[in-house]
Amino acid sequence: EVQLVESGGGLVQPGGSLRLSCAASGFAFGTYGMKWGRQAPGKGLEWVSTINSSGGTTAYADSVNGRFTISRDIAKNTLYLQMNSLKPEDTAVYYCAQGSGWSKRGQGTQVTVSS
Question: What's the confidence (pLDDT) of residue 71?
Answer without folding.
Answer: 98
